[in-house]
Amino acid sequence: MLRKYDLVSRVIPSLIKSQPIRWTSVASSANKDEVKPFEEIPGPKGLYNIPVIGAFFHFRPFGKFTPQTTHKLIDSLHEKYGPVVRVQLGRKCVLLEDIKDIETVFRNEGKYPNRPGIDISKVIYEKNGLKLPLSEIQGEEWQKLRTPVNKRLMKADSAYHYLVPQNAVADDFVNILATQKLTPEEMKDLFFRYASESIAVVTLNTRLGFLDHSSDKESSEFLAATKTVFSIITDAISGKIITHKWYKSQTYTDMEKSLLLIRNTVTCELELTVVKDPPVTTATTPSATTTLPDMSTVDPRTCMLLNAEISNLYLCS
Q1: What is the mean pLDDT of the chain?
Q2: Cis peptide, bond prior to residue 61, ω within 30 of zero
Q3: pTM exceeds 0.70 for this model
Q4: Which segments of the chain does DSSP mark as H helices, in order?
Q5: I need a labelling partner for 55 at 20 to 30 A (CA). Which of 174, 205, 254, 286 fits?
Q6: Phi, psi of 85 (to 5 degrees)
């Protein structure tokens, strides 16, 4: 069975707004007599169902799970309640396990799918007067930004351009594995650095040195900021961060500092990266473009949008 936790943020808005749903797959062909109301979807009740704070009771010290083991919580909910589960995780969520149900949801999202982002990120962007990235906007505005991204990233040969630099990153990764004895924690950190370096090749069209023997201060700070953002996002998804709208907690401060550092680094890389000469296309070489456009023709406003989108693309990747 396919279990995708990140599907939660995409599923619930359409289910709540449409009200009646079918508990099994292929809702579009369901008989009306088989449709049941949203409130009847099985799931935890009592304290677990309290708005906003209900999620807390799944996690320590009240429960046995942590934000880092949320995937185990979801497994346990499916084992107890079945393939469709209603649960409070900061907001009302529906968890789907059956791949056919997941396909049904994606195929019925409509022209402007509702895709709630990470609330603490949105608050930070707005309080700092920053343009919201693709992951935080909805409706027609989302489609206007998404459409040009599709043209670059959805081509069948879009990955071809990155084969050489990605092979170089992979070679460095394998060399470390072959020459160093690593503890489990060091191995975990190495995989994170490998993933971060690979993603930078695509989103920033450069290497940031995360696999070097001695990374510079800027690279180390950028990597640490990335880890902080992911850690806080994990807490936010599991419903454990709810106070950021009212005051600047330490979590809010850490998230703000890390997001701004990532954006500032991306700004520097954008200023250094000028893509002037497209790859040569031959009969045996597919055409390909980088994620970045020709920066020599980009106006300041577009540069600001690119900053937001590439920062977001790096984190989402």
Answers
A1: 75
A2: yes
A3: no
A4: 8-18, 70-81, 99-107, 119-127, 139-153, 163-179, 184-203, 217-237, 250-272, 300-316
A5: 254
A6: -130, 135
